[in-house]
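dumping these here so i dont lose them again. two proteins, back to back, each one seq then structure tokens. dont judge the mess
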Amino acid sequence: MTFAVQFRASAAPESPALRRYETPYYLIHTDLGGADAAEAVVRMKVLAEVYRKRTRELGFTGRIDRRLPVYLFKDRADYLATGAPPESAGAFLGDRLVAAATDGRGGGLAWHVVQHEAFHQFAAAVSGPDLPGWVNEGLGEYFGESLFTGDGYVTGVAPGWRVKRVKDAIAAGTFGPMQRLLRRSQEQWNEKVDLANYDHAWSLVQFILHGRDGREGDDHGDDHGDGDRSMADFVRALADGQSAADAWREAFGDAGAFERRWRAYWESLPAEGTPQRCAHAAAAAVTSLAARAAAAGQSFTTFDDFSRAADQGELRCPPDDWVPPSLWQRALRWAPAGSVWSFEADAERTRVVLVVPGGARKVGTFDLHEGRVRDVAVRDEPASKP
């Protein structure tokens, strides 16, 4: 959620000493320790590259000429002392700061919220056009749902629980008229924070970028097509001074026809959401871990050997190319039920293979250059014919 308030560095004289970490795009200030701080630095470094690439693909043309300040607090009281709204877990304050706290329920950082707010910060920093509320918040939610894989993020993820919420809202008519959402300004959005509006806006963005005639799109990795071009046309038209209504008509056509296609997409989306994108994230995360183990001189003959080492916390990782070991358990959760993991090796490389129900394969590869991991990628292979 976005809140138009200013960060007050002097508001909490008892606030903890914050350590500072520099990445190419961020200055991260945090009192998190150990692995939590290390994961925050790695996540934010990778996240900035995803924003840079995706915002360019979506029509944002500006450049960032400074590092963006990020404040991550261990204790919620220190977070709230910044002036952040008491009901929030993270906020983009003013025009230049993201602040985030724990999720308020004793868990770790609410990364969905951090990723959402970091999009607002990044979009403001590239000096793009003023976005209508549905685009600004819908894209924030779109990036919020992205899955961190160690060397990247998989975007376009629609979790089953959220798909159900959207389906239920469409069936019950609780979203309200789409035109009312499209006309809602960012100021009106901020005046009343409504969960249904976030779901509605996210569902529009998800459909635009990944809709395929009511089916889950086949662009499970970083390839994007007509949806990206339509969104980019919309954003560029706004930058050229067109009204939001005119920009909509040029980019997306008749609003009534759009709404019918949007409804069909969501009504036809499977209850589990986008399992192929989750599977892609699972394969990418395991490939990142396998790549680090190889860079640290650790080799495995079979995936079962790798799995036992991961379960026992024995995977090695170069200190200067670290990714969180917790990726292992996340990857296992993301892989669809009934998936089968394996390693395939030849004289040149080892590949991570995830075969999902139905037989389609996610094949993860990586390269090493002077001991550093490079070019972690996952490609899709169709199921073999019987």
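---- next one ----
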Amino acid sequence: MEKSRKQLTNKYGNSEMLEIGKVPPQAIEIEEAILGAIIVEAKLFDDIIGIIRPESFYKESHQIIFSSIVELSEELKPIDMLTVISKLRGLGKLDEVGGSVYIAGLTQNIGSGAHVIEHARIVAEKFIRREIIRLSWEVCNYMYDESNDLFSEIVQYQKQLNETIDFTKHDEIHISDAIDNMQEYSIKLNNNEIEKGLPTGFTYFDEFSGGLQRGDLMIVAGETSNGKTTLALNILKNSAEKGVKAAIVSYEMTAFQIAARMVAQERRASSKDIIRGNIDETNLRRITGDCYRLRDSEIYITKPKGTGFDKLVIDIKRMVNLYGLDLIVIDYLQLISNNKRNGSTADSIAEIANYLKALSVELNISTILLSQLKRESNPRPTLNRLKGSGDIENAADIVMFVYWPNKYGNVSEDVNGVNCEIEENEAIISVAKGRNIGTCEFILRFEKDVPSFYNHYSNNVPFDPVNYSEPSEITPFDFH
């Protein structure tokens, strides 16, 4: 037999799904004490406004009174019994809350104002408990209808729950404490006691930037078949072999294809031959058996079921919690669907990019998001060519472009302000945006048969004082 429920809803949107006979968490007398203390001693309002808000109060009349006090504060008007009564009268709410007599009664027997912060925390806790009850009932009712989208509701529940809890958290820090913390952190960085950044394996970029930083969103973009996925896989593999825990979310490639490309990069073999089965068993076992660094690294591969953004968020959070990930690669932005958005494609893509940036900060990871570029007559990548641009650039901490001059018949290009001859197997990697590092350009060598990018020192490009290292000497396999 279905249990009877009672839904209480007020105009502030604070609804509660309750079982008949159960009293929701509340503290009516403490709510009265808070309101009375503020009316008597207005400066107490500043002490608690970051702890509670109108909907934190259980009693609707208390919500209305506190809301009127908030409005008085925003209007820079004094807060006292007369102004509160006048405000409520002007709003047509005075009788609704019990009239002037009730307001006056709040100021009686209020006790010491020293307890108001503690009281506010109690009211805030009661509110959080009620909100969790409400959200839980809403999720339960939603789950009974199997036509609803499961993952969308889970993400919404997590978001609302976090918003409810986070309201009472405070991250303010005095500048003196911030300087002390900065000093201690910088000393540890200098002494190599903590990581300076996640290594990409590309010497120039790592020296220039200090590596990928936690909380950062990096966009790797390029035209179709220009190597953006290859570059991202290189970074993923290189960093993982240095101890970084990493994962790739691929909407285009299977785990088989990704593994083949990483093995090929490690052993300087042909991924095409591996994928097409053109290598005999003996040689293939030699290749895969020698991938000790790759096998020992912590790399996880996932191909989401569907392209929904909500499912992607859940997968990322699950993998970070399960494997303690440091780095996530997502291939690629334009293949992710955002079903919640009714606006333009650009707005939808921008919303995804902004959320992934916030998620990187929340989870303390570095995220690499691949993106296509719009085609233009001038093939050299620019920020305004990010496909569905919107706020993608604004969301990103780093925007990195892959550019092949020779592919477009250009044998010379300006690199870091110097005109250079560009060989056929050389690609220009352009950091077009670096929120905390600045911009730069460098050249990598590309081995098409693998395919893979490698560190490359070019005499044409003055990159002093960075010392480049060529790839480790691994003799390519000859299968023919």
